[in-house]
């Protein structure tokens, strides 16, 4: 069973190796591998953003600061793009993407989101307890009302959180493509990420931990769950 | 109960998002919400009155012309326009100062009218005062006497659905806030976008 961080690091290795190889224009295989590795890396980053946004209490190894930093960079770039588009808003081409005000709002939204995700990651890392199992995905606090209605934490994390992100993304896409599409990507990233975990045999452990971690935290705080 | 409310909320978000997307990109027969509309031609004369910001972008494979300025359509059917024309030489769509080679600018005026039958309005030029502001070396052969070519007195400029042997234009939007015309110039393989934005 491979750790998610190991998979992320191997993908990073593949990405940078092919980044060098793809400078040779004739090496189209390296370019394809580069794009695929880049997309795979981005799915990790997108999934990390959803995770940090919706959850708390990840444990010292449950948060990857590099991925959180990449969230900040990614959302920062989207924000900068939106603000730049707002300055160029008299262009008819940009009007197809969204109205001038929507560019400004999307820029502010992603700037706040990027800073919030990264700041929360740092705070959570500082407060983390070593007792939490490294594969534990965190307490779903934002949609905890669903668990009170009988949902399991694994179901909330696997379905409800990405579904809500997807719905918000679908709602914002017609307002501004640059506002909605990154959120759609983040939601789909969670499911793709789960697919990776399933392939590498981590998924079941995480689901079990999500269940037990939640139950134990109600009574005794966290303790490492053996599996 | 909270679960039902949550899923209703999700359904509302997805439903309205899909409806707005369909409307925006005209996928369904629903009214377009963000593209604006084309007002009935009877209302054009009233709508045109006032000051507009004007921008015309001509993009060919290796060069671009950008005309920018201000135009005022007056109730007595006269108009006056201030204009700066910039010529950029670079691959398709490169419009930045590093590609700027020529600047020509000034003003022209004349009479405007809305066509009775076809969907366009016309400017007929009467007076022109345009001079060369900047010309990089190597561009001496360009005919920059715009007052005897593009903006020569008695020349017609038509904005709307118009076709010529070498070019075709289509009106995309005409309302109180914005007028948009897009077209192609076939002998140059160029695209043209003309945008009027209301100023007052």
Your description of this structure?
The complex is a heterodimer of chains A (227) and B (200). Residues 214-227 of chain A have low confidence and may be disordered. Chain A has helices at residues 4-21, 28-54, 65-87, 92-95, 100-127, 144-148, 153-172, 177-199, 203-219; strands at residues 55-56, 139-140. The relative contact order of chain A is 0.15. Chain A is mostly helical and 227 residues long. Chain B has 200 residues and is mostly beta strands. Chain B has helices at residues 2-24, 44-48, and strands at residues 50-59, 63-73, 78-89, 100-114, 120-135, 156-160, 162-163, 167-174, 178-185, 190-198. In chain B, strands 6-5-4-3-2-1-10-9-8-7 form a 10-stranded antiparallel beta sheet. In chain B, 20% of the residues are buried. Chains A and B meet through helix 6 and helix 7 of A and helix 1 and strand 10 of B.
Question: How do the strands and helices of this protein lay out in sequence?
Answer:
The complex is a heterodimer of chains A (227) and B (200).
Chain A: H1 4-21, H2 28-54, E1 55-56, H3 65-87, H4 92-95, H5 100-127, E2 139-140, H6 144-148, H7 153-172, H8 177-199, H9 203-219
Antiparallel strand pairs in A: 1-2
Chain B: H1 2-24, H2 44-48, E1 50-59, E2 63-73, E3 78-89, E4 100-114, E5 120-135, E6 156-160, E7 162-163, E8 167-174, E9 178-185, E10 190-198
Antiparallel strand pairs in B: 1-2, 1-10, 2-3, 3-4, 4-5, 5-6, 7-8, 8-9, 9-10
In a few lines, what is going on in this structure?
The complex is a heterodimer of chains A (227) and B (200). Chain A is mainly α.
Enumerate the strands of the largest sheet of chain A in spatial order, edge to edge or round the barrel: 1-2
Could you give the order of strands across the largest sheet of chain B? 6-5-4-3-2-1-10-9-8-7
**Residue-averaged pLDDT of chain A:** 82
Structural class of chain A: mainly alpha
| Major β-sheet annotation of chain B | 10 strands, antiparallel
Multimer state: heterodimer
N-to-C SSE string of chain B, H for helix and E for strand: HHEEEEEEEEEE
Q: Count every beta strand of chain A, where a strand is a DSSP E run of 2 or more residues.
A: 2
Q: Any low-confidence stretches of chain A, pLDDT <50, length ≥5?
A: 214-227
Strand proportion of chain B, as a percent range, falls in over 45%
% residues in beta strands of chain A: under 5%
